[in-house]
Predict the structure of Nuclease.
Amino acid sequence: MRRRTILLGLGAATGTGAALGTGAFSTASADRQVNVSVADDANSFLSLIPGEENGQFTDDSGDALVIDISGDDGLGVGVDTEYTFDDIVEVTNNSQDPTFVWTTIGSAAFNDDQLTLYTNNPETPLSDANAVELGAGESVSVGLYLDTTGIESDEYAPTLTIEAADDDPNGEDPDEEPAPPTETIPSVQLDSVSSLLDANQEPLTDESIIPIQAEPPAVNSDEDGNDDAVSYPDDVDIPVVAVDGSVVGVTGPFVATDTNFFEFGNEEFLLNLYDQLLGGTGTVLHDESHGQFYTVAPNDGDDFQAFGEYAETNSYVYEVTNNIEADLSGADAVVITSPSNGFTESELTTLSGFVDGGGIVFLHDQSDFNNFDATDNLNEIATELDVDFRFNDDQVLDDQNNTGAPFVPTTANFNTEAFPELFVDRDGLGVELDLSETYEVDVTDVADGDTVDIVFENGTVDTVRIVGIDTPETGDTTERLQEYEGIDDGPALKSEGDDATNYAVNELASETVTLSFDEGEGLRGNFGRLLGFLELSDGSVYNEQVIEAGEARVYDSGLSQHDAYWELEQDARANGEGIWEIADQAATDERRDDPVDELFFPEPVAVSGPEEPVASEDGEPLVAVDPDANVAAVGGPLIEESFEAGEGGPGIGAYGVFPFLTNVIDYVSDATGPVIVDGGHGQFAADFAVSAEDAAYYLRYLEGQAPGDEAFIDLEGVVDLASDPGPDLLAADGTPAARALILSTPTQALSSAEVTAVADFAAAGGAVILLGSAADTDALGNFDPVVSELGTDVELTDTAVTDAQNNLDGAETVPTTTNFDTAGFSELFTPFTADDPSAGGSLDLVTVNEDTEGDDLAEPQENVVFENSGDSALDLTGYTVSDATSKQYQFDGLTLQPGAQVTLYSGTGDDTETERYWGRTGSAIWNNSGDTVNVVDDTGTTVIDESYE
């Protein structure tokens, strides 16, 4: 940066300082002066002349321009007084190139804010932060401000220096790399956001205006099905915030009150942006005059109340406007969130004039999931303001970086090089919580039986996922029936969910409760929600009460209270309380009990033992059994449900892992009773291990089996293997109370008492199944004391087994194999229960009614009809129906009896056993000109693929 300097000195022309007297200011005397001169190296391009308004106080007849600020009695200006001289000097750039001009002060007596030059406002000094750029031949009028408050009468010789340079002193040196902030905000949360486009409605790639992008794995999708979204290529990061001059585009609400401000830095980023654009103070209007969903006043968390208060504590005024045209003249910025009603031409013109006059505009969009149609209205504003970005009518999804759901992505993909000041860490919102402390909170809203909104004493709003329990989903949310033992009736379970919500409202609504936490679970879970216990004013704990009432099931995590809660659930189930009134485990249909033709192993390790019935295609042993010790070792957690098609996985119905594992249990033990899954040693939190919560599909498989005198096989979770309460390993007489204990890779060591309990169980005849994993070979060491105490010859090695040719969905770390020792272990590869040749359900497409009168989504609605043409009941849970595009519907809790039909309507309505509703409100599904009906079962197998003309 080249610098040139102009010196302006008080009293420099006469060789004396500026005298401060006691009399009022007058212009009659010239005894005390301000001398303004141009430094030699600046003479060629800058000139100073008297200003038009107060130029009479100057004299430019000599070599230097002189300003007279003495009193008529020669005693100088008065003390404890402020003086302003507008337009006293005019500065002109006589060069052919633009230049920046600003001033500094040098004085032992005067502070920086007591003696300044200014341009428009005496309160805004012409400092480096407010440097003025002068084009070739341009001029600027400069005033003088003097504040003598606290200055004693005397003579002083302070100096003002006008500096000039080719580059903005408050900008970046093009020859230097900008340094990122030393401490940045954490990641930000993007709840239901869209993406940004450029002004031509193409992917936005101009990083000079993009501070934040989604993480690289994120994708964008046309969720409303209107085919009006622009897709982003896989190799382009998706922008979610843009700053073009004084206009900001944010693709979601970003600072809604239900944002997890403690964990994420959304509010800090936005306030940093306010400070950069507004200078640390100003009036910000929040528009509520165009049908906006996001208000300033409390709106169940869908509001900007918390951020508005945060801005106000940081020197801003944040208030509502219901009349843009009338109120903008008194504001410095305006916030516009997804307007469902468009702006008039007059309002657009007012906004444009507001920006031209230095006003700041913040535009907040949101995803197209519910087809709010606000995107076009925002883009009209962006077009009027002539900015280089537009909003996309889409939704950003990220399967890897989120707070529990792909539509709530998180990102730390920050452009700190171009925007370092926007990511500086600062004091933000949220309450810093301690796991060991309790907090008095008010319940402000009850979402359902296991989720409430609360407010802390300081006004911070948060959401509590009531820990250790799970109540049925309500409304349109899909429920996983597999989690609820013995329940196959989806609509009935929905009704139970409504009852659970009513129970929670009666117990918790508007109550002051004591919030506490479980150290084993941590503070927060999915979606960033707090995981808490709620103690009522009478000392009772809601978490326990709702289980006792039968309105909730126990959530099989590592909760310290899990086993005690499990016993409460057993009592409720035995008495048919609440949701358990509709449970019948013995009535669960047999499913997936087919011959074992192929197996898959998630991230397995090689095993060894006296008998090795299964190996990889390359020969590494993957299963070892020791029937003498009642122990088996399996290389990977093959019942982990994330591979299920219904959970977004590739589908594993073709792999006989369920009958195989059950046959292994039967091979090493003759015990009967439930299968118990350990979840108390970090398994629930580890992706490579399984608790009972991770094996819901295997639970439903076991319920469909009826070996010997047993009506079904139960599956239960346990946290503490050595103590009551909880599922028992041994009965009072010392015989096994369970058929098997499944122990997957423990990230936390078992206690010595637990190791003994496992060994005693095996010695009594119970099966112990060890599931390994190569994902954490250090954790495999926690098996060693157990294996030693069991006295078994099986071993889980730390050698990872992979296969680039034979694997699941192209993942070499998930090998598949047919390398079975069927000669020596034929019983391991058959169905666990012998097949009934007369049994079987089969789904057929009866008809497609695609062309109805009027609107296809109104009455009569378009629909498709299916029939079970088989000989036995057919459970459609997890079956998905789709057309030739990406539109998809999933059946939930519906069993068709032989010969029964179900009609799937495309629009909205109330589900019954014979009628189901897709829930479409935008575009219809079945094209009148022809389409394809595709049905995939819960194993990922296509059962219907029929086209029509």
